[in-house]
Amino acid sequence: MKSKNSPLSTAYLRFLQLTRIVHALPEGLEMDANERALLEAVVLRWHENSPMTVREAIGLSDLGSPATLHKRITRLRDKDMLTHLNQEGDRRAKFLVPTHRTLKYFSDLGQSMQQAQQNPTA
After folding, report:
1. How far is 34 from 63, CA to CA, in rounded Å?
2. pLDDT(25) > 70
3. Is residue 28 assigned to a domain?
4. CB atoms < 10 A from the CB of 65, how many?
5. How many helices (H) and strands (E) in the chain?
6. CATH number for the domain including 82?
7. What does the DSSP 8-state code read for residue 53?
8. Is residue 2 assigned to a domain?
């Protein structure tokens, strides 16, 4: 039996359906929720013109221990989701930046949100 949902809850549920499809699309892009949370934190900082260093990323204690976070960063690099850049003149600090693949991934999610907004009852 289907219950009557509000337009906003229907839109959000449709968005969840579409993001599930997007998450399944790219081959080799499988990420668990923890990897996705780390990627989102890194990319958000990059988007805000304040790229996160590897040291800052492994210090995100709410996302795991430093060793666990370092492994996740390595997995995201292996999946071509993150890369790092050194600041000119200082080779010690490695800044994490999204790859083209990551930007496409977020673009696909944005398109899913737009589709959910345009077709809330689809």
Report:
1. 7
2. no
3. yes
4. 10
5. 5, 2
6. 1.10.10.10
7. B
8. no
